[in-house]
Amino acid sequence: MTRAVTSQEQQDSLSKIQPHWRDYLELTKPRVVMLLMLTAIVGMFMATPTMVPLDVLLLGSFGMACAMGAAAAVNHVVDQRIDALMARTGNRPIVQGKISPQKALLFAAVLATMSMFVLSFFINALTAFLTLFGIVGYAFIYTLYLKRATPQNIVIGGLAGAIPPLLGWTAVTNQIDPHALLLVLIVFVWTPPHFWALAIHRRDDYAKAGIPMLPVTHGIDYTKSSVLHYTLLLCLCTLLPYLSGMSGLIYLAATLVLNAIFLWYAFRLKYSNVPGIAMKTFGYSIVYLMGLFIALLVDHYFKFVLVA
Q1: Coil, strand or helix: which one is 94?
Q2: Residue 264, C-beta contacts closer than 8 angstroms, at least 6 positions apart
Q3: Is 70 exceeded by the pLDDT of residue 304?
Q4: Helix 125-136 crosses helix 54-78 at what angle (to 10 degrees)?
Q5: Distance CA 274, CA 277 (A)
Q6: Which residue, among 198, 203, 226, has the nearest Cα to 215 in the 3D structure?
Q7: What is the C-alpha separation between 160 and 134, in angstroms, rounded?
Q8: Which ranges constitute the DSSP H helices of 86-177?
Q9: How far apart are CA 41 and CA 168, in angstroms?
Q10: Phi and psi for 174 in degrees, rounded to 5?
Q11: What is the pTM of this model?
Q12: pLDDT (tens digit per residue) in 223-270
């Protein structure tokens, strides 16, 4: 006869699992960090007409990436109960018992300490302070409170995830520039349609976990309308770098194309019942942000080549 496995035996079995370095890497949400680091690095290059000093580029990128990884690791710890209930996150290292919450928090603390040390001593205090704001904003204010408190969680908490371009800019200049804030605005407005498209697809998971995401509290149709409205607002915001003289025609042409495609996805999401359109919209939103910031970079240096 088979014997029922007790919860204590399950915990003992999980405790024997040895973590792999890839499990710690997964704690940092590397794909998310890479996307955010792209915006930060473009912020660095946009801050200067010449080459970013190599020490600033390497040490600044390292410090920012460590901070983002630390915030992500804290998110894994805080959301372990929720992650266990959702198909998208059920295989995360803490949920699977590969890494204990205590070790994950220690790992996050080490990353955060390295980040603050490198940014404070080798970059500048302003960048270190703004980076600390980002860690606290995402890992604690958003994850611990906003995520569970309001369907506008991703809008309010999105500011913490939108500051990497500003961090890159201040790492080079040690000052907050209005053009850097334009880049923050773009990422800030991009975040709701990006995330809500995913939330529509995962609506049942969020409902089961008791998280008040917009599709859960206001319904899928309302959320589709919100995605469309924010996408329209995003299209207007992305014109500001050109209208302010920050960028030129190369950026404008790329933006118009990228915006047209994003609007096409948003309209299809709202007015059609195409299977999988929510995830396709989510996937394109990532390509959109990457394309937008690459266009900023290409336009920036093409302009200075012409001047030279």
Answers
A1: coil
A2: none
A3: no
A4: 20
A5: 6
A6: 203
A7: 5
A8: 101-118, 125-136, 147-149, 153-156, 158-162, 164-173
A9: 6
A10: 60, 30
A11: 0.90
A12: 999 999 999 999 999 999 999 999 999 999 999 999 999 999 999 999
